[in-house]
Amino acid sequence: MIVLKKFGLSLLLCLLVVVTSYARPLKETNTKINTKSKQHTTAKVSNSKKSNTVSKNNSKAAVKTPTVKSKTADSKTIVAKVEPKKVVAPECENEKCVTIVTVSDRKKAPNAWSVNNDLLLAKANTKVATTTKKVAETPKEEETSFSTTVMDWVKDKYSTMIEVLPNQISNVMLYRFIDDWYGVKYRMGGTSKKGVDCSAFVQSLYKYVFDTDLVRTACMQFNSSQIIKNPAELKEGDLVFFKVNSSRISHVGVYLRNNFFVHSASSKGVSIASLTSEYWSKYFAGGGRILNN
User: One of 40, 92, 219, 251 is an active-site residue; which one?
Assistant: First the structure.
C-alpha cells in the first residue's frame, strides 16, 4: 500500500513535469506565431501606405502639366502651359503674338507641341506692322476723302446755281460759307443765323473767307471800297451795291461769277440772285473792290 502510494505520487510528479515541459514550448511557439503575425500585418499596412503614397505621387506627376519657356514678340519671357494631346494655336492679343518655343529635347517635355516659331513670329510682326500702318494712315485717308467729297459736292451744287462748270469754282471756302448760311431769314439789324441783314452778312462773309474786317453798314462799305462802274469788270469776291427806292446806297451783296451774287434779301433771306434780272438790274449802283483783298 505504501509502495502504491509512493508509486502514484511519483507518477503524478512525472505527469506534471511532462505537462509543464510540453506547455512551455507551446506557449513560446504561440508567442512567436503572434509576433510574426503582428509583424506581417504591420508590414502590410506599411506597404499599403507606401503604395498609396507612390500612387498619389504618380497621380500628381501625371496631372502636372509640363511647361516650356516661350518668348513673345516684344522679347519678354513667359511660361506657356502645354496640355497633353491638345493643339494650342498661337494667340494674338494687343498686337503681340505669343508662340510656343520648339522643344528640342522631347524627353524633358514629351507632350510639348513644336511649332515653327520663325514663321509665326514673321507673320505676327507683319500683321502688327500692317495694323499700325493702317491705324496711322486711316485718319489722313478719311480726312482727305471727306474733304474731296465735300469739295466735289459744293462745286456741283453751286456750279449749277450760277450756271458755270464745276472746275470754274476755285474758292470752295466761299461757297461752303454760303451753303452754311443759305436760307437764313432777313432781319434788319440782325447779325446771327437767327436773322441777318445785308451788310452784316457781307461783313461775316469777308471775315470768315478773306479774314478781312469790314465796316458795318452798306453805305460805309461803299465809301471804303474802290468803285467799279462796269459790271463786266467784276471779279469773284467784289461787292455789289444797290439803291433800292432810295437816292443812297441801301443794299449790298458779294459778287460770285457769271453775273450772280449772294446777299441777304428781305424777301428770301440769304440767297443767290442775278444782276441781269429785271429787278436787280434796275437798282444796281455799281461794284466795289476792297483794296486789301
Answer: 251
